[in-house]
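Q: I'm writing up a methods section and want to include an example of the input and output format. Could you take the sequence below and give the corresponding predicted structure tokens, formatted cleanly so I can copy it straight into the document?
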Amino acid sequence: MKLRVGKTLLAAAVGLAMALPAVADTIKLGVAGPHSGDLASYGIPTKKAAEIVVAKINAAGGINGKQVELVVEDDVCKPEVATNTATKLVSAGVKVVLGHICSGATKAALPIYNNAGVVVMSPSATNPALTQSGEYPNFFRTIAADDAQARTEVDFALNVLGVKKIAVIHDKGDYGKGLAEFAQTFIKESGKGEVVLFEGVTPGAVDYSAIVQKIKRNRADAVIFGGYHPEASKIVTQMRKKRMKIPFISDDGVKDDTFIKVAGKYAEGVYATGPKDNSANPLSKEAIEAHKATYKEDHGAFYENAYSAALALTNAIKVAGSTDDFDALKKALQTSDVNTPVGKIHFDKIGDAVGVGFAMYQVQNGKYVEVK
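A: Here is the clean output for your methods example:
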């Protein structure tokens, strides 16, 4: 699907899509994620991706003659809020959801959607069990799972940086702890390195000096951190202030410009995994240009994955004929290739996108740059 709308028309169409009133004869697309709070920088790009994709579709006549209506709910990336978010979307008659963003929130919401026969696709929830456990046949994602991400981090630490003693730290959440556990396993299995410290920290704490001292006391050559930017920025800042110059390696929960803004000069040199660079993909360029033209700002974290998810979901609706038949939607996602900013994709039998993966990035001169 390649729909082109002029920049001025696109901005107007996005405004129309956002203001589209609830009409019985529309196709409802739910969008769930953090649109406020500390992790809003992860959720707002997905909301904007959905707005742009839907605006293009509606400007071209909609799907099978029907306009697409966005139904947006904020879950603040908290599991206890996400269940309420899911209930609201189900009550609104939504049968297809783009989101959630955080793994913990996604896990909490999925049973509600599954019971209601709602298809859910996340651009960012990387916890492996979300697809690999078999509990959520309604779940799909356009990003690779944490086992692949942890493997990338460990291989980079051991084989590229050549470190031996690694402190593995996490934020105790489904996402951060799960990733850290995979990293710990891969380090032990490698025969090349040693986990000298494995410990969780409390999210939202002001002072992380205790964990910083443990890292130093255990003489770690590097840190692998599983979690999000608020904790990572504080830990790396306190490490650098203590003159600890060892590599700090993290995940796509930290590969975000907000981390660089918060950590400031202490972000320099930090490594983080993230989705592969798609800048050579014409659809990626087109999607990013549409965002800049519409919102007059950079696109932010997971935008391309979210844009791809919106394309995949709307294509599945078109192929299935409506949102009413769960089995038809699922079959369409698994059998119909879709050209997206992250590549030409479809989904395997457990819901993972075929053809996506991770790359390593480093903060250089205030920007994340892919490490070749």
